[in-house]
Amino acid sequence: MKETKDRTRTDRSSKSPSTDSYPLVLDIDDFKGDFSFDALFGNLVNELLPAYLEDETDTSEGHGANDAMSNGHLRIPDAGKSAPGVSSPLFPEVDALLSLFKNSCTQLVDLRKQIDGKLYNLKKEVSTQDSKHRKTLSELEKGVDGLFDSFARLDSRISSVGQTAAKIGDHLQKHASQTIDLIKYLMEFNSSPGDLMELSPLFSDDSRVAEAASIAQKLRSFAEEDIGRQGIAVSVIGNAAASRGLEVAVANLQEYCNELENRLLSRFDAASQKRELSTMAECAKILSQFNRGTSAMQHYVGLRPMFDLEVMNDDARLVLGDPGSQPSPSNVSRGLSALYKEITDTVRKEAATITAVFPSPNDVMSILVQRVLEDRIPKLLEKLLVKPSLLNPPSMEEGGLILYLRMLAVAYEKTQDLARDLHSVGCGDLDVEGLTESLFLPHKDIYIEYEQASLRQLYKSKMEELRAESQQSSESSGTIGRSKGATISSSQQQISVTVVTEFVRWNEEAVSRSTLFSSQPVTIAGNVRAVFTCLLDQVSLYITEGLERARESLTEAAALRERFVLGTSVSRRVAAAAASAAEAAAAAGENSFRSFMVAVQRCGSSVAIVQQYFANSISRLLLPVEGAHAASCEEMATAMSSAEGAAYKGLQQCIETVMAEVERLLSAEQKATDYRSPDDGIAPDHRPTTACTRVVAYLSRVLESAFTALEGLNKQAFLTELGNRLHKGLLSHWQKFTFNPSGGLRLKRDITEYGEFVRSFNAPTVDEKFELLGIMANVFIVAPESLSSLFEGTPSIRKDAQKFIQLRDDYKSAKLAARLSSLFV
Questions:
Q1: First CA to last CA across the chain, in angstroms?
Q2: By mean pLDDT, which of 169-183, 236-250, 288-302, 350-364 is the weakest?
Q3: Is the same domain home to 694 and 758?
Q4: Residue 105, exposed/middle/buried by CB under 10 A (0-12, 13-18, 19+)?
């Protein structure tokens, strides 16, 4: 095959058109196997260098080789080139060889590039295959590791199962042995009734009491269960004869267990007296097998000194004090704090002993704390909280209902603190909070009724106290005749903001108890609303009665005025006495006016205190119940409506009192010559009249208290009404006089004085009326022919102006009626 290939290449080379071109073809296969550079080189140059070929041929013949070369291609010499006798240069093949070599180099470079490309592709493919191989190996390693883990777990499981099987076998063997012993012991107990003498030594050996107790309990449980199954079987088969069961064994075991339990309890008591905790713990551990140790726990708790009768009697003396003395809440609070601290310390000490002795200390602590809350505390509360009768409540001298409520609050709060302290010491699963609440249920069920009754009793007592103080004050100051004007009995019972503040303080205390006795928002809201309603009733009644008393003084002053109204035909001495009495009545009216304004002011302050208290303390407690807040606001408005009615009536009486005095002053001080001065050439007097000065001075003095007492809309309404009444009264008063021009000027000065005073009322309608009065006063000043021009800008005063015009002194002489008839049509 190689020879054929070489021959082909030689043929292709021999067909070259010239010696300068050597289309040699080098193949990769030429470099495979036993490669020899010399052979390759010879194959390249044998056509150009015959001598080299001959040398090679000789060498080959000498060695017995054939013409085929192991590497390279055999080149056949050209006949023309090898003809003898042809002369040539010294080395004529140089150019041909150079060309050959360059061509060979080019082919070798191409072959190298081919080889490099193949090597790159192979390298890339090898890298890809290597990555896949490594990934496969990694997955195989993980699988192998998982397999090893599975084998390890399986091996461990097999080992565990083997060990468990061995333990079960040992356990079964042990139980089989124990079962045999139990059967033997059961047969001993079932031998004859009441015969405990023939039992095994185990049941009489004091050193093996624990083992005997355990076995006796097991036998007893089995025997009772067997009897129960026999009972079921007998009920199934009817009257068929049943085989003899284990009734004898049950009876004997019960007798033995009772004897053993009593023996252990005696040993436990002896060890307890000696404080031998190890022996106590041993006995308690054994006794725990009898009814879970309940008898031992109760026995231990029952023998505690803290439950002795003498100790509990001392509790009452510590809290209540000496017999016969009335305890106070503060002393009871201190006594309860001291007593409950002592109880807590005692329970804490017992807890240390119980923890060291009993296998289930929480159960023992539960019994101990329960005994404290069901035995010791109730006996104390029974003596402390004696529920009074609502039909015949104790008097305030005896403390009243408020004393019981305060005692209840102190006891409840301190007992709650005790329950928390006991819970922190430890009480097992005992519901300490619920147990404590149950102690006060008989008191809390009707608590709110006692709270309301107490508030009523406090109010009644306070009113009696105020009346007694008023009466004592009246007696000490003597009796002043009503003609003097001052009503002392009424003034001594003025509304007091301090008293209303005391009402609120009572209510705050009651609300605090309501929140103390319940944690449910709905219950708290209901109780608080009931308590707040009591406050509304108290304040409403108190301020209404105070206003009514203040009104009585106004009524008495009015009666005094009416009494001294005289006719026209009386003697001078009688008139003087009546004037003096009228002055006294006026003074009484002024005093009653001030007293009522003070009452109104204090009434407003009292209502403000209640409203502030509602906003700060009551409102938030009512919000959890839908509609409770709005209902309380409505109740508050309703409760104050009666006081508002009394205040309104009193303010109307105040206006009547003021106007009565104004009318008296005008009647007494106003002279006919004030507005009809003689035309004697003397300059007119531009000062206000004496009556006007006296009236303004009186109004300034008496209304000072009104300006202080009244506020807001109440003040505005009162002053507006008073201004309107004053305007109407002045109009009526001036209708009694006749005016000339100089008198009209003086009237206008009076109107200006009145107008400046009423301007302090800040009532625009009143100011407007007095401004119109000033305009109407011009009808007395202008000439008759100018009257019609006065009403061109103010037609609204024509009706009143018509009356004023008739008061002119020249009304008839100037024939003003006919002249102005067209104006008033």
A1: 160
A2: 236-250
A3: yes
A4: exposed
- 278 in the same domain as 373: no
Average pLDDT for residues 687-698, to the nearest whole number? 93
pLDDT at position 749? 93
Encoding tokens for residue 69?
A: 């070369």
Q: Is the pLDDT of residue 420 over 90?
A: yes
**Whole domain around residue 281: which residue ranges?**
190-227+244-287
Supply the CATH number for residue 606's domain.
1.20.58
Q: Is pLDDT at 118 greater than 90 in this prediction?
A: no
Query: Rounded CA gap, 340 and 319, in Å?
Result: 10
Question: What distance in Å separates the CA atoms of residue 133 and residue 152, rounded to the nearest whole number?
Answer: 28
Yes or no: say if 532 and 618 are a contact pair by the CB < 8 Å rule: yes
Residue 543 has pLDDT above 60, yes or no: yes
Per the structure, the count of domains in the chain is 5
Tokens, residue 125:
């493919």
CA distance 261 to 267: 10
For helices 247-274 and 294-302, give the axis angle rounded to 10 degrees. 30
Here the tokens at position 130 are 């290597």
Q: Which residue(s) pair with 739 in the sheet?
A: 808
The whole-number pLDDT of residue 15 equals: 37
Q: Which of 155-164, 497-506, 674-683, 696-705 has the lowest mean pLDDT?
A: 674-683
Is the residue at 176 inside a domain?
Answer: no
Does residue 448 sit in the same domain as residue 593?
A: no
> Residue 88 domain-assigned?
no
The residue among 485, 669, 465, 663 whose CA lies nearest residue 559 is 485
- The reply to whether 314 and 447 lie within a common domain is yes
Distances (CA, A) of 284 to 271, 291, 320, 350: 11, 12, 40, 15
Residue 808 sits at φ, ψ, to 5 deg, of -65, 145
pLDDT band at 326 (very low <50, low <70, confident <90, very high): confident
Instruction: Spell 595-629 as b/e; 16+ CB within 10 A means b.
Output: bbbbbbbbbbbbbebbeebbeebbbebbeebeebb
Q: Which of 739, 749, 610, 609 is nearest to 672 (CA)?
A: 739
Side chain identity at 172, as an amino acid letter? L
818 and 705 co-located in one domain: yes
Domain boundary among 639, 661, 683: 661
Which helix or strand (DSSP H or E) is residue 38 part of? helix 37-45
As a residue count, the chain comes to: 825
- Out of 602, 636, 661, a domain closes at 661
Report the alpha-carbon distance of residue 103 to residue 24 in Å, rounded: 7
Give me the mean pLDDT over the 768-780 stretch. 88
pLDDT at 74: 40
676 and 656 in a common domain: no
Residue 428 token pair: 């097992």
What are the tens digits of pLDDT across the range 651-677? 999 999 999 999 989 988 888 888 887
Q: In whole angstroms, how far apart are CA 724 and each of 378, 525, 689, 700, 765?
A: 73, 48, 21, 17, 9
Q: How large is the C-alpha radius of gyration of the chain?
A: 66
State the pLDDT at residue 286: 75
- For 190, residues 6+ apart whose C-beta sits below 8 A from its C-beta are 223, 246, 248, 249, 252
365 falls within a domain: yes
- pLDDT (average), residues 702-725: 92
Q: Are residues 313 and 460 in the same domain?
A: yes
What is d(CA 494, CA 473) in angstroms, rounded to the nearest whole number? 13
DSSP 680-732: SSPPPP-SPPHHHHHHHHHHHHHTHHHHHH--HHHHHHHHHHHHHHHHHHHHH
393 lies in the same domain as 256: no
Percent of the chain with pLDDT over 70: 74
Which ranges of 426-446 would DSSP assign to H, the alpha helix?
Answer: 432-444
Q: How confident is the model at residue 193 (pLDDT cuts 50, 70, 90)?
A: low
Please report whether residue 77 resides in a domain.
no
